[in-house]
Design a protein that fits this description.
Chain lengths: 140, 857
């Protein structure tokens, strides 16, 4: 049985040129949203990240956008099956991807049976409800 | 499984272990399982494999359920939908005698004159036909949908499917094996079942094979992808390869009397005798042309069924049990009886002979179920087993060709003489193959008929008709499972509104507060004191980077380069045709970036538009959608500034925060960007703040506002407030081909700019005379609820020349006002129009505070 938990994450958005984004997309908790955008999950030093990217892109924007996101975490056996009830994306064993789940765009961080769904706050309730309904018997 | 309880049309029917609904009913003496679609002919059990429509009954209010494949478990209520007063004694059977009135294609031929004839006939026909009424009052259930990926999907878990599943599994590929039923559950004991059990053990032991029993494939789509329906869910399988092992059904035979109750296909009869212990009849005749047929014959006899005669080819003569008369190389001519089988006529060595019997069991060949493979064009699909058989030609001796749609062979012959001369158009005209069996029983016979009758050179007319999904009857609910996605967006103040008892409603995908119970009070608060509203639904975007101004200047039609930091401006986005697609408020920030607010419903469109043009123009910009991250509260009314002054030490007087402008403030400890807003026509501030701090800010405003008699207001009050100001809602007040000129928004367009999206089109359109425009309207003699005028056609001399797009009672103006589009006539635009019995007068907007002194306050 998988466990579903909801938490408020720390998210920092980095908007910069592709080369500048390359510099930070290997950091732990990084999700490459597009060539020009990286979302960094967890506590990061805004100043350090800015210093890393402005050398390559003086216009780069580094912004704390934590309020825009909610994390729904699926953890434990059955989490991948629960995910498949809501999305046609193929999950890697570990890594991050961007795609559609329950009809909305989300960012996904995967590590084995632990799946973190980074969902815009305005639709977080919808996604939580969909997981609870569609994967009811898979959840603890 | 424990046997259930069957309640059949008011009486209890005993159920034994392993029973299907059909076997329990048959054991209880039911012979007429349904009445046919048009002629209300009696139909009894026939295929026994869930293909033909004969055994379809209504189970617990759900019509069209195949009783032969429905386990009799749980508490089930069974009814037969067709037939009046009952399926057993059906007076509507007269329809069969009235066949000349309803010939093939009758809807094009009869009930045409007098003109009301069809209306009357249609009502009667609809009542007499159909699969039964839908359970409209049934509680809503929800089918879930999920996605599965594999290397190979094998559809069908018979001998061929099990074998195919084991083949690639050796390489460690992921194989998914699915079947509409439990493996081997519908095969009578015998060599075939033994083979299945042996293979099944190997398949179950192989961890690379996932088995999905009770999941029926619905079709085959590009990808290839195969949707499966079962266990209350729709599973969408994406595979690299598809193996179709759907087997074959026993071929439907055409001869006079072929639809009489008592005529069985071999699988149905042998399962009834061997699995359920009920002999199909007391005097049974078997026609066995195949090895499988001989197996059925033996199974029937072994189960104690009295088989009086068996028609077999000479090769099988030794297989006929001693107690049964073998008729070697005989030919079946017809089945006779009224309402049920009484005898069969056979031809033996040229002699016709009649044999009395009450059951006729047919095993005369196979009809491969190859539809899935025929749905796939250019997909990696392999047919195996019986599904890949090259089936022989069915014999077209008479009787009913299509059992589902009640189409007899003579109907098809009639259609042919009328000029419908290929299988595809015969299908459309006669509706043969279009019933619930999806052509499984009759598809081959129809193609064969066309082939026999067509010119030898005309290959196409005899081709099989196109196979289409769904392969099996499927509930609409199942099909809707993956697309039924209502996404509810909520602002950070959602819980606050719920606690306040607000009336919530949908607006552009958001759940919003429509009102807090006192619409008039909410309106007055804004006009006379101060009101506050959750506007966290507005789209908010950051546009940064060195080309930010160029992007804004390109996407928006107005002047951008002179927009100084701290100032804001209404902007219009056009498409390349010069039509208005979006609007918003652009705020220039000190660091060279912009904050853009856009309409609540248009945020996603705006995001896409900005990114598209940044990409097309190769601009160095950084875009961020901040809609989810920022909350916003609109504080509006003559006392709005008084309220904010109580919560901040930052300067907010007109000089420090002029209209139209914006600045950062800290209000009640919450960091905000305050934007002066003119939408409601009063002194107003939009307070954009971190979403998580919304409830705190809302509470502080409400607390401090108490002394000023503040009131929260909702969308309903906003509708009146903005209308009095003459502001339009894009989408509600606009049409897809509205240019700025038609909307009276030319002031928001700067044609002196070298380029912006849509400029070239506007230049061309400017040379044409205006034909339509949005106008302000005042109504005379309006109904008590002015809003009822919304949508009303606007007329001049009886001709419709426009439509009311927004309307409301204005308390300040003490009359009904609105917006609407009007068409230009020969004498220019009309000044007075009719809206039903109401007079609509064209007036200039804004209706309220035309000079804008209150907004600037």
């Amino acid at each position: 049985m998988a466990e579903l938990r909801t938490s408020t994450p720390s998210v920092t958005s980095v908007l910069a040129s592709a080369e500048a984004c390359d510099r930070v997309s290997e950091l732990p908790g990084a999700c490459r949203v597009s060539p020009g955008e990286v979302a960094l999950m967890g506590d990061v030093s805004e100043a350090a990240v800015r210093a890393a990217v402005v050398r390559l892109d003086p216009d780069a924007v580094v912004l704390d956008v934590s309020d825009g996101w909610i994390v729904h975490s699926l953890d434990g056996p059955g989490s991948r099956e629960a995910f498949a009830r809501l999305s046609e994306l193929e999950l890697p064993a570990a890594g991050s991807l961007v795609g559609e789940l329950a009809g909305v765009g989300v960012r996904i961080l995967v590590d084995g049976d632990r799946i973190d769904l980074l969902v815009p706050s305005m639709i977080a309730a919808h996604v939580r409800e969909r997981i609870e309904v569609d994967a009811a018997e898979l959840l603890r | 499984m424990t046997p259930g309880r069957l309640r059949f049309e008011g009486r209890d029917v005993p159920v034994l272990e392993g029973d299907t609904v059909a076997s329990a009913l048959f054991r209880a003496g039911v012979r007429t399982f349904s009445r046919s679609l048009k002629g209300h002919r009696r139909r009894g059990l026939y295929c026994g494999t869930g293909e033909c429509p004969n055994c379809a009954v209504t189970v617990d209010g759900v019509p069209g359920v195949r009783s032969c494949i429905t386990p009799a478990t749980g508490d089930l209520r069974i009814e037969r939908p067709r037939g009046w007063p009952s399926a057993d004694h059906d007076l509507l059977h007269v329809a069969d005698l009235a066949h000349p009135l309803m010939p093939v294609g009758f809807y094009l031929k009869t009930f045409i004159r007098p003109r009301f004839a069809w209306r009357t006939a249609e009502r009667m026909i609809r009542r007499a036909t159909g699969s039964g009424p839908l359970p409209m009052d049934a509680p809503a259930t929800r089918t879930v949908s999920r996605h599965v990926r594999c290397d190979t999907i094998v559809v069908g878990a018979g001998v061929a499917g099990l074998t195919a599943a084991l083949e690639p599994a050796v390489d460690g590929e992921r194989v998914l094996l699915c079947d509409g039923f439990a493996i081997g559950s519908r095969v009578a004991p015998g060599p075939t079942l033994d083979a299945i059990r042996t293979l099944e053990a190997r398949v179950r032991a192989n961890p690379a094979i996932e088995i999905m029993e009770g999941y029926a494939a619905l079709g085959l789509f590009d990808g290839p992808s195969v949707p499966l329906a079962g266990a209350g869910e729709l599973v969408q399988v994406r595979a690299e390869r598809v193996v179709v092992a759907t087997g074959a059904t026993e071929a439907h035979q055409l001869f006079p009397g072929n639809d009489l109750p008592g005529v069985w296909l071999g699988r149905a009869a042998s399962a009834m005798a061997a699995l359920h212990g009920v002999p199909p009849g007391r005097r049974v005749v078997v026609v066995a042309s195949t090895a499988e047929g001989v197996e059925h014959l033996r199974a029937l006899v072994a189960a104690g069924t009295p088989v009086v005669a068996a028609l077999v080819p000479s090769a099988f003569v030794d297989e006929v049990p001693r107690e049964t008369e073998a008729i070697v190389d005989g030919e079946l001519v017809e089945a006779r009886g009224h309402g049920r089988l009484r005898s069969v006529v056979v031809r033996e060595r040229g002699e016709r002979r009649r044999i009395r019997c009450d059951a006729l069991v047919l095993s005369m060949g196979l009809a491969p179920r190859d539809e899935l493979a025929r749905m796939a064009v250019g997909e990696p699909v392999r047919l195996v087993g019986d599904a890949a058989l090259d089936a022989g030609e069915p014999r077209l001796g008479g009787g009913y060709l299509c059992l589902c749609e009640d189409v007899a062979l003579h109907d098809v012959e009639q259609a042919w003489t009328e000029g419908f001369r290929s299988a595809e158009i015969l299908k459309r005209y006669t509706t043969a193959t279009m019933g619930p069996c999806r052509g499984a029983m009759c598809g081959r016979a129809l193609a064969c008929f066309a082939r026999d009758h067509a010119d030898a050179a005309d290959q196409r007319s005899g081709a099989r008709t196109t196979a289409r999904p769904p392969l099996r009857p499927v509930a609409l609910e199942t099909l809707a499972a993956p697309v039924h996605e209502v996404v509810e967006k909520r602002t950070g103040l959602h819980e606050v509104h719920l606690a306040a008892g607000a009336n919530l409603g949908w607006s552009s995908g958001w759940k919003r507060a429509l009102s807090y119970g006192d619409l008039a009070g909410e309106y007055r608060a804004v006009r006379e004191r101060v009101g506050m509203m959750d506007v966290g639904t507005l789209g908010r975007f950051l546009i940064a980077g060195r080309d930010a101004a160029r992007l804004a200047g390109s996407v928006f039609a107005g002047r951008i380069e002179d927009l100084a930091p701290g100032r804001s401006r209404y902007v219009l986005a056009l498409d390349e045709g010069g039509y208005v697609v979006d609007d918003g408020l652009l705020c220039a920030v000190e660091d060279g970036s912009y904050l853009l607010t856009s309409t609540s419903g248009g945020a996603e469109r705006m995001d896409a538009r900005l990114r598209e043009w940044a990409d097309r123009l190769q601009l160095h910009v950084h875009l961020l959608d901040r809609t989810s991250e920022l909350g916003a509260i609109l504080v509006a009314g003559p006392r709005a500034r008084d309220l904010l002054e109580r919560l901040t030490g930052d300067p907010i007087e007109a000089a420090a925060l002029p209209y139209p402008g914006h600045r950062e403030l800290t209000l009640a400890g919450v960091p905000c960007r305050a934007i002066r807003s003119g939408f409601v026509g009063e002194l107003a501030f939009e307070l954009h703040h971190p979403r998580s701090r919304g409830p705190e800010l809302w509470d502080a405003l409400l607390r401090e506002g108490k002394a000023l008699e503040i009131s929260p207001f909702g969308l309903d009050a906003l509708e009146v407030l903005r209308l009095e100001k003459g502001h339009l809602y894009l989408g509600q007040d606009t049409l897809p081909d509205d240019t700025p000129a038609k909307l009276g928004l030319n002031w928001a367009v700067d044609m002196s700019k070298p380029w912006f999206v849509g400029k070239a089109a506007l230049e061309r359109l400017a040379e044409l005379p205006p034909t339509r425009r949005l106008a302000g309207l005042e109504f005379e003699g309006a109904p008590a609820e002015g809003a009822e005028l919304r949508g009303a056609p606007l007329t001049v001399g009886g001709a419709v020349v426009g439509r009311v797009t927004s309307a409301a009672n204005s308390a300040s103006l003490e009359r009904a006002i609105g917006l609407g589009w009007i068409r230009r006539g020969e004498d220019g635009f009309p000044n007075e129009l009719g809206a039903g019995s109401v007079v609509a007068r064209v007036v200039s907007t804004p209706f309220y505070d035309p000079l804008g002194a209150r907004v600037r306050g």
